[in-house]
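Record pair follows.
FIRST:
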Amino acid sequence: MQNDLLDLKNLGNTSINWLKAIGINSYEDLKNIGPVEAYTQIKQREIKVSKVFLYALQGALTDTHWNDLAPSLKQQLVEEAEKRLSTT
């Protein structure tokens, strides 16, 4: 399994820097925290990230281009993220 974040689909230098800022330095770190938690922690740092970044994180874990994720999965991710952000 790929361990370097730069090897993962959908992630570039900027998004990797955001992930490292919250302590995610590998595929395993991202897998353990999950895309929704990673996204919400980055949003809480007042970094302007879009929903596409949330999809990109999910796609990075499944080796899928973010645009190829099922619409229902995208909706589920957004709902989970909004719920988490509204309770913090």
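SECOND:
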Amino acid sequence: MIAQQHANDYWKANLRIILWSLVVWALVSFGFGIILRPMLMGINVGGADLGFWFAQQGSILVFLALIFFYAWRMNRLDREHGVDEV
């Protein structure tokens, strides 16, 4: 029973990390790049407006950062729950 609860806690934490990563990805790619683009047009980054920058480069950079964050956080979670690779 304790092992099952431990496994449930691990997967709940895993799903929470995935959910927040997807929320950040959606906010940056769809929110900043498409939906909020008219509001971001007045801010210039490298000669282009911020909404265009997020649509073209910012969402890609944030996606790469999310990959590294997910790997780092999952390694830490694995160690906390004793399921890490030695």
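COMMENT: Strands lie at 44-45, 48-49.
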